[in-house]
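Section 3.1: Structural characterization of target chains.
Under the original work plan, the team committed to producing a structural model for every single-chain target entering the pipeline before any wet-lab resources were allocated. The record below documents one such target. The sequence was received from the expression subgroup and is listed exactly as submitted; it comprises 335 residues.
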Amino acid sequence: DYNLMGLPLHDGPRSATIDLKNASISIPISEEERGLKANERYLRFHDVDGAVTITASSIQADFDAVFHGSRCNVSAIINGPLKPGITLADLTVQANLNVDALDLPDRRGSPPERRFVERWPELSKFFANYDPHGNVDLDFRVEKAPGEKEPFVVREALFTARSSDASCHIFPYRVKELTGAVEFDANGVFLRNLCGVHDSARVCVNGWMEAPHRTALAKLSISGMDVPIDDELLTALHPREQRWIEEFGLAGRFDADISITRARSAHEAHPAPWDTAVNLAFNDLISTYAKVPVPVTHLAGRASIHRDRLEVSQARGELGTGSIQLQGFADMQDR
């Protein structure tokens, strides 16, 4: 025992270094967690090996450990009034965390997981917007100013998906077996070959946003191969696109290349609209148009959609015992 907070026995600096061997560490993230047992908190580390240096006004830690079954390394500098009863909310924190093969917390799971996700506004928003599950590697650097309402700010982050799944709130089409990376630094957010599957479809996302908020400049590209026209796709689409697919009785699979851009805007309440351009290629669609009693089969060709304009080119199919060629455009605005 060494009291760093009491009256000094000498005028020099006071410090203590604790060598950790197979230790356990638990960190309360809120006033609520302060009174909980260690195994009731989410931030808990086992098999800890490393060192913690404590002075009258700071803690420096560097250790390897097991975090929820995953190997990790933590280095942190914590400054503030080190006295009994403090939590992270009271302190200034700079931390680096590297975790291999972590199962993501579930905001609808255990109370510790729910509290952890809901404690950080940006993390809570991320889980609400993308509903991620599965296994990832994490490498990030965070900072926090003292104060209960001061958020943790991510300065750099690298999320590498091992076998995850996610579904975006604006297009709820769940993609599984995700691999690839999401990287964040001072230059923006980068999506790098974030690829997965949905049924037989192979979906990949690449892109860049200058910052993780609604007013930021953004350029994204999405490619889909062998995408089935099924109930899950229809549910994810805008009602206008649903109506067109149902009206023409489309069935089968297609490839898609989608470009999505957004201009920078000055006001959070009025973000710039997304500009979406869709290019489709299909080889063997079926169309059962309500006004034509005979279905068109083996429909192959290309189509594009941009700003409410649908254009079909080089489309050919079989109509009964004959053939049909399609070329032209249509206005897709709400009627």
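Residues 98 and 264 are 32 Å apart (CA to CA).
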